[in-house]
Amino acid sequence: MKALVPIQRSWVRLVDCWQQHERLRFIVIGVYNTAFGYVAFAATYLLLHRRMHYLGILVLVHLVAVSNAFLGHKYLTFQVRGNLLKDYLRFNLAYLGVLAVGLIGLPFLVEVCRLHPLAGQAILNLLTILSSYLLHKHLSFRRA
Fold first, then answer.
1. Residue 32 half-sphere exposure, CB side, CA atoms within 13 Å?
2. Which of 62, 75, 111, 143 sees the fewest Cβ atoms within 10 Å?
3. Domain locations along the chain
4. Residue 58: is it exposed, middle or buried by C-beta count within 10 angstroms (0-12/13-18/19+)?
């Protein structure tokens, strides 16, 4: 039984760290969301690229990935309560900029730079990670 005490203390420290550090939560949820979005794009691209243009796939996956990201950031990262619809609309507003960058950047990377759509999307994901914390903290989940 004494052997479990250090494990319990470590678990309590981990939970305390999670609760006290919003940036840590953002990084963990952000890594998950980035992986989810990229895998969703890649899987959808591989399934539909013969029938649908990669930009159509981008928009389709964007809707699913943003909804997934919203839930993680609302309840886990920023831990806010309140109007679900209002927060969802503000979250989507923040991500419209990300979608615009994707709709401009992906054709540039594919058509001009001659990258594969999956490589282009990976590059765009890295670029958008940097701005998303500030957008969500100060726009999506801002509280008075």
1. 13
2. 143
3. 22-140
4. buried
pLDDT of 47: 98
* CB proximity list for 92: less than 8 A, separation 6 or greater: 66, 70
The Cα-based distances of 129 to 39, 69, 80, 101 in angstroms read 16, 12, 21, 12
Q: Render pLDDT for 121-140 as a digit per residue (tens, 0 to 9).
A: 999 988 887 777 777 777 77
- pLDDT for the residue 1: 60
CA–CA gap between residue 65 and residue 106 (Å, rounded): 17
Rounded Cα gap, residues 138 and 143, in angstroms: 9
What's the CA gap between 135 and 130, in Å, rounded?
Answer: 10
Quickly tell me which residue has 């990201």 as its tokens: 69
